[in-house]
Amino acid sequence: MTDQPESRILIVDDIEENLMVLTDTLEAEGFHPLQAMSGERAVQIAAAARPDLILLDIKMPGMDGYETINALKARPETADIPVIFISALGQIDDKVKGFRAGAVDYVSKPFQKEEVVARVGTHLRLRSALRAVELERAKSDRLLLNILPEAVASELKEKGQSEPVYHAEASALFADIVGFTQKAALLSPKEVVAELNEIFTGFDAITARSGCERIKTIGDAYFAVCGIPRPESDHAFVLARAAQDMIAWLAERNSSGARTWEVRVGIHSGDAMAGIVGTCKYLYDVFGDTVNVASRMESASLPMRVNVSRATADRLGGRLPLEPRGPLEVKGKGVMEMYFLA
């Protein structure tokens, strides 16, 4: 018996006796045969039933086997179904023409039952192995997208590397949980991770919805950007609104959650470099003075407030209400003007 008991095989032949012999043979091996007596009908059945393999006669009235396989390959829903030609045509040119049309194998009439069963089983196992590889590739792709932006992941897959990119205009955001170390000391490790996971998952949803990009989390700090890696002409405004949504989301969570948390948020705008760091464990990161100043804006902020630099405020163009804070000393940068989003 076959190790592919659920496999559906579409048999296409205009001679009823051939259909019956092949059907009985495949049923005896545990397959589930389907039948079609014309190429036109075969295309219809294949599109509806999506068989795992097709046994296709070449010499038929109406659409012959070559025309039938061309029609199958032209349709997305049937293009990947493997086809084995079965025909009394024995010339090498006929076989070559069949393989060029897309057939995976060729059995000559009069056929031996054992040969048909063996070839069917072989190609079903190959198809199963290919599907397994495709599933693993899809898993790898999803994993890659969890750690890299889509455009960067695509470049890495296509070229095997990703070049660092200079971005003349972007905005960077840092959000830090207030008093996290002290509060975390009162919780179990499992509870700490669960709280961070829920908060940062909420921030991720806001970031993605806004068209921004979460770069990484650093302990209880959250780092996101807008305008990187995808250009965004209104990056400061988009990121500022995302920051407001983060504050609002956390406030709503606090109103019904068992534990309450507060964050300080800071934003700065300017130029930056972005690229992949490392080769064993990929990390997409953003570098430059814009990132450093954004971190300083967060440190100078207050709980549940968004603190923005003058550079970010200028790019907002008066579209969001601001609360001037006056010139303040910034570590490593001297005196800088900054504003709260009101």
Summarize the structure.
This protein is α/β, with parallel strands linked by helices and 342 residues long. The protein has 11 helices and 13 strands. It is elongated and about 90 Å long.
Description of the molecule:
The protein has 342 residues and is an alpha/beta fold. It folds into two domains: 8-145, 3-Layer(aba) Sandwich (Rossmann fold); 161-341, Alpha-Beta Plaits (2-Layer Sandwich). The chain contains eleven helices and 13 strands. It has helices spanning 16-28, 39-49, 65-74, 92-101, 113-147, 150-159, 180-184, 189-210, 235-256, 289-299, 310-316; strands at 8-12, 32-36, 53-57, 83-87, 105-108, 165-177, 213-218, 221-226, 263-277, 283-287, 305-309, 322-330, 334-341. Strands 6, 7, 8, 9, 10, 11, 12 and 13 form an eight-stranded mixed β-sheet that branches. It has a five-stranded parallel β-sheet with strand order 2-1-3-4-5, sandwiched between helices. Strand 1, helix 1 (16-28) and strand 2 (32-36) form a beta-alpha-beta unit. The longest helix has 35 residues, at 113-147.
| Mean pLDDT across every amino acid position | 90
For the sheet with most strands, the description reads: 8 strands, mixed
Enumerate the spans where pLDDT stays under 50 for 5 or more consecutive residues.
Answer: 1-5
Task: Report the order of strands and helices.
Answer: EHEHEHEHEHHEHHEEHEEHEHEE
Fraction in helix: 40-55%
Going by CATH, the homologous superfamily of the largest domain would be Nucleotide cyclase, GGDEF domain
Measured distance between first and last alpha carbons: 74 Å
Q: Would you give the CATH topology of the largest domain?
A: Alpha-Beta Plaits
What is the CATH architecture term of the largest domain? 2-Layer Sandwich
Task: Give the number of domains.
Answer: 2
Compute the number of strand runs.
13
